[in-house]
Amino acid sequence: MFSNIRSLIFKLDPETAHNLAIKSLKFNFIPNMPDENKDDPLFKTELFGKKIENPIGMAAGFDKNAEVYNSLFKLGFGFVEVGTITPLKQYGNPKPRVFRLVEDEALINRLGFNNLGAENVINRINSNRKIGILGINIGPNKDTENRTEDYLKCLNIFYQVADYITINISSPNTENLRKFHDQKQLDDLLKNIEKEKKNLDSKIPIVVKVSPDIKNSEIDEISNVLLSNNVKGVIVSNTSDSTRESLNNIQKHQKGGLSGKPIKSKSTILINKFFKSLQGKIKIIGVGGVDSGASAYEKFLAGANYIQLYTGMVYRGPNIVSMIKKELRELLLKDDVKNFSEIIGKKTNT
Question: Model pTM?
Answer without folding.
Answer: 0.94
